[in-house]
């Protein structure tokens, strides 16, 4: 396999990790490990929206490549698949075509269906409403509100809105529907319902990975993740407050 092929394979693997929410130290380590599996010395720099890779060739020259990543989500299943791919390369090298096919399969691996994800979101709202001292009635209200919110987010996803606006809209829906539920049936505590329902929007994985990056010494990446999490939290809170004020 040529140096260019190894660089492409490593960058594809790194970009899958980055766009699915992996930590910075994991991305850099995996990309470097793939290059080392093919006997090449490499240095990798992962940023919030891209990856830089420099590989030293046999004639002491360096080939530098870059891959930009725009789409972001959280998918721990794809991260695990890339980790397994990297570990297998250490034991058994494969050709460029096979490696490319494996990475394409990982990239296109199926996600949970919309009904499964919707049920998970509803159960999250239900459990957290009870966890924050809500009544069973509050939990049931959270189920319906999480269902409405998640469906709306799925419907607006194809319009390529900014992350801030999508979370603002979701917060507005949660705040408005929680207040409406309280107005229709006063025993429902709107505060407990809102607290439980917004848990489906809070960026727990992003915040946790930001802390991990800071611990591992990747301060710029960690701060970037903190800022991303802060923007989401501010957007959700702004949406809820707007709904309550209106």
TrEMBL record:
It is found in: Cell membrane. Pfam families: ThrE. One of its GO terms (biological process) is succinate transport. InterPro entries: ThrE-like_N, ThrE_Dicarb/AminoAcid_Exp. Keywords: Cell membrane, Membrane, Transmembrane, Transmembrane helix. The chain crosses the membrane at residues 126-153, 165-185, 191-211, 223-245. Its main location: membrane. GO terms for molecular function: transmembrane transporter activity. The keyword Membrane applies. One of its GO terms (cellular component) is plasma membrane. Residues 9-244 form the Threonine/serine exporter-like N-terminal domain. It is a multi-pass membrane protein. Belongs to the ThrE exporter (TC 2.A.79) family. This is Threonine/serine exporter. It comes from Clostridium manihotivorum.
